[in-house]
Design goal:
The chain has about 500 residues and is mainly alpha-helical. The protein has 18 helices and no strands. It has one domain. The radius of gyration is 23 Å and the shape is globular. Keywords: Membrane, Transmembrane, Transmembrane helix, Transport.
């Protein structure tokens, strides 16, 4: 019986999907072109760019749509809240950016452990391990979600302790209470999302997110304006929308033939090896959390300025726009992680290195274009969020810093995706600590408070930290020995692959 179970589990390795074979062939073609001595340098670069661009945009385009629509759900909730009044806008901004982003960063960061392992395992044709990694991550993130619930419940005293006004903290707490169900949607969504991305299955998530956004907008309008549920209703609908995404994606995994070799049902292995899996997840979480918390601290510091409501309103609008454009880079981040992880797992060092160059180039060009558009719209940007002329002037004044942030975000997130694909999370965490918390935040605080530059000073200092971090990542990536990374990926997968366990019915 044990032998039969083992043969059943190993069967996917002998009979991979047709789509997998096509992907593998294209990837091998890229490595062959880059290694072909009969082609000139110009011919190799031209053919390789065409092959990599097709692979990249097959991943990046749907991934950008998924991240942008998911972010647009949060942004639309903030817009609905903002049209209730300036206090409600400040409360939703603080609750969304000050509390919710904390959970988002932690969960997404822990989920990137799945991104590393699943990406490399898929490239190495160890398909049956992907479902195990997904389940382990979901277990760990759900346990983490229980701890985060406590943070949400006590959000009001925490915000007051951080120096926010009682009025804004009270309203923000009401908004945060409605986001508690969203925590556990995160716990399942991010492992599922990374599981699908590792297999280059991104389009279904884009369709699901698009349909959910339409439902979200309609229900939010009814809940906030027709039923009158206010801030609590707006955030509760946002939680519901995230659960719709989770359920739809899981149904796709179970029913789709594309996942029949990577999802073999629930397994007891999901509850084994958790301490070791937690270490990798924790390193991933620290890496990403230090990034997401960085700009969260910008908003919290703005709440300590002389006119906190104006500072929060103007900064939150800029951060919301930045976050929306940032989703493009996050889509390329996901594509970079998948491409690098798959190529390293498949033993293709030249393809991995070439993928890094192409994805960074495309992301940077798009980010520069977005920065130019923002500068053209700087005087009317805020009216999509609120009708106040004072806020509009403040937002216009911050737009040059917003444009510079967008340009930096065209590079930094992509290189973070490369780090995830290679498994460098711990190293990047150290870099983030030094650049963000030793340089950026102290410098921003000095400029903002000591030199009385306000929100512009805080943001300027923190941009300095981001610029230094970006330069370090560029330098490290440029000096990477990709042959060595292939060996490291093989050793990592050998260490993580477990003996097969019976599946649960």
């Amino acid at each position: 019986m044990a032998s039969l179970q083992e043969d059943t589990v190993r069967q996917p390795l002998l009979h991979p999907q047709t789509s997998d074979i096509k992907s593998e062939t294209t990837s091998s073609e890229l490595e062959d072109v880059l290694s072909d001595p009969n082609l000139s340098l110009f011919q190799r670069l031209g053919r390789a760019t065409w092959i990599e661009s097709k692979l990249l945009f097959h991943l990046a385009a749907p991934a950008v749509i998924v991240y942008m629509i998911n972010y647009l759900m949060s942004m639309s909730t903030q817009i609905f809240s903002g049209h209730l009044g300036n206090l409600e806008l400040a409360a939703a901004s603080l609750g969304n950016t000050g509390i919710q982003v904390f959970a988002y960063g932690l969960m997404l960061g822990m989920g990137s452990a799945v991104e590393t392992l699943c990406g490399q395992a898929f490239g190495a044709h160890k398909y049956d391990m992907l479902g195990i990694y997904l389940q382990r991550s979901a277990v760990l993130l759900t346990l983490t979600g229980i701890l985060l619930t406590v943070l949400y419940i006590f959000s009001k005293p925490i915000l007051i302790l951080l120096g926010e006004s009682v009025e804004i903290a009270s309203a923000a707490a009401v908004f945060v209470y409605g986001l508690i169900p969203q925590i556990f949607a995160y716990a399942l969504n991010f492992p599922i999302q990374k599981f699908l991305q590792a297999q280059s299955i991104v389009a279904p998530s884009a369709y699901i997110s698009t349909a959910t956004l339409v439902i979200h907008l309609v229900i939010s309008w009814v809940a906030v304006y027709k039923i009158g549920l206010g801030l609590f209703g707006a955030s509760l609908v946002l939680s519901l929308s995230w659960w719709v995404v989770v359920v739809a994606q899981f149904v796709y995994i179970v029913k789709s033939d594309k996942c029949k070799y990577t999802w073999n049902g629930f397994s007891v292995q999901a509850f084994t090896g958790l301490p070791g899996f937690f270490k990798l997840s924790a390193a991933s979480a620290v890496m990403l959390c230090l990034e997401t918390w960085y700009f969260q601290i910008l908003v919290l510091l703005a709440g300590l300025l002389e006119n906190p409501e104006l500072a929060l309103d103007s900064l939150s609008i800029c951060m919301t726009v930045s976050g929306w454009v940032f989703m493009i880079s996050v889509g390329f981040n996901a594509a970079a992680s998948v491409r690098v992880g798959n190529e390293l797992g498949a033993g293709h060092p030249k393809s991995a290195a070439f993928s890094v160059v192409i994805v960074t180039m495309f992301s940077f060009i798009i980010s520069v274009a977005a920065a130019i558009i923002i500068m053209f719209l700087r005087h009317v940007l805020s009216y999509g969020f609120t009708e106040g002329e004072v806020v509009a002037e403040a937002v216009s004044d911050l737009c040059p810093l917003l444009a510079l942030t967008l340009i930096l975000n065209g590079i930094q997130p992509v290189l973070s995706g490369v780090a995830v694909g290679c498994g460098w999370q711990t190293f990047v965490a150290y870099v983030n600590v030094a650049c963000y918390y030793v340089v950026g935040i102290p410098l921003g605080s000095v400029l903002g408070f000591y030199f009385n530059l306000g929100a512009k000073g805080i943001w300027s200092g923190m941009i300095g930290g981001t610029a230094i971090q970006t330069l370090i990542l560029v330098w490290v990536t440029f000096r990477t020995d990709w042959e060595k990374e292939v060996v490291e990926a093989k050793n990592r997968l050998d260490a993580w692959e477990d003996k097969k366990e019976p599946l649960l019915n």
